Amino acid sequence: DGRHHVGSGDDHVEVVKVLLGANVDFSLTYGVYGWSPLHQACWLGHECMVQLLMQAGADAFAVDKRSWCALLLAAYGGRANIMETLLRDWVSLQDERVQGVIQQVAPHPQI
Q1: Rounded CA Rg of the chain
Q2: 53, 38, 42: which is closest to 76 by C-alpha?
Q3: Of 67, 106, 40, nearest to 16 (Cα)?
Q4: What is the C-alpha to C-alpha distance for residues 14 and 93, in angstroms, rounded to an integer?
Q5: pLDDT at 31
Q6: Among 66, 87, 57, which residue's Cα sits nearest to residue 75?
Q7: Which pTM does this prediction carry?
């Protein structure tokens, strides 16, 4: 119903912790783009929320309706801190999916 998106999009870490404790499914997508809470947190640059969702088992490579993963959204959103967090703590540069994101972003030097 979108409650999990309100908490993650508004960076309400304590609200999301309560929802996680109540076993709310944070893999559900919502909205016109089909974003998960992780997509939304990455796009908005909410680093603490990204960490919390990843610790809870969020999938950094789950894609939205446009086939964009959270790492790609962070890149296009100019969220270097989020990209660094994901790459440092949660995904490997050796992962072929990361290489795919790099290939998508490379033609856009403004990112």
Answers
A1: 13
A2: 42
A3: 40
A4: 31
A5: 82
A6: 87
A7: 0.78
